Amino acid sequence: MDSNLFSRRRAERFAQLLDEANGGRRHHVRSSADGELAALVAVSRRLTAERPAVEVDREFRTGLRAMLVATAEREGIGTPAPSATGAAAGGIRGSLLPAVTGRRARARGAILVGVAAGAIALSGISAASENALPGDALYGMKRSTERAQLALASSDISRGQLFLDFARTRLDEAATVRNDRLGFSAVLDDMDADTRQGVRLLTTVAAQRSDPAGLDAIDAFLSGQRRAVSGLLDRADHADRDRTRGSLALLDAVGNRADALRSAIGCGLPAPAASDALGPTPPACPGNR
After folding, report:
1. Alpha helices of 177-286 — where are they, by DSSP H?
2. Is the distance from CB of 276 to CB of 207 less than 8 angstroms?
3. Cβ–Cβ under 8 Å, residues 167 and 225
4. DSSP letters along 259-273, please?
5. What angle do CA 281, 287, 289 make, to 5 degrees?
6. pLDDT digits (tens, 9 = 90+) for 204-244
7. Which of 31, 78, 129, 195 fits 167 for a cystine, CB–CB 3.0-4.6 Å?
8. Number of C-alpha atoms within 13 angstroms, CB side, residue 19?
9. Residue 217, Cα to own-chain centre: how many angstroms?
């Protein structure tokens, strides 16, 4: 119940922000989610300003239209408001219903339009920007799409796994721009930041739930990431090797943290109170001290 309530408020607030961004009246109410939703609004604005020359597949267009029509019918969007007679018969609740329904219908309608426009545009732009590198025209769109994915993720585990996926993407970019020392270092900085964010989310969930599932995702990430980062050492000059070793040291710290948390969960220790950039810092099990 509470989850549905907050999801609805978040959706309605997103519709308000879209309305404001497109020149509508400003709403005085502010939400704690505004900062997170701002990335989605920015993507929407950018999609409107930079419409790509993309041809939408006919089957996709037909399927999307059917989905929107079905959603509109289910949500009652476009249904006439009850008559004044019906409202009077319904008392106070009936008199308030048309206004509430109209407001929610507009909010839901705006969301549907945003989803439709985003789905159509992103189907082309995301594909076009997928291989963009730092400095390319579409690289900003690539990163904006990643932020939108994070904002739409349904749980901390999903967000944590997305951050680790983005760290893998940054590693691929670093391998391509390795001859540009400044660019190489900047991409590794972003890679390490994504790694820390993802690991912190996954270790926090693992500690809170006493469930090592999130740690399994970290282990799978480390097995391939260590090998790929080590491969950069053979192709970089001395200065870049030093920077690459810094990323390898971070991966070693991540592995040690995941192992320590797995041991703490295995011996039944409570969730650690202390934390750092990699998440909870568990004490050693009694037998290992």
Report:
1. 181-209, 213-232, 238-266
2. no
3. yes
4. HHHHHHHHTTPPPPS
5. 55
6. 999 999 999 899 999 999 999 999 999 888 765 656 888 89
7. 195
8. 18
9. 17
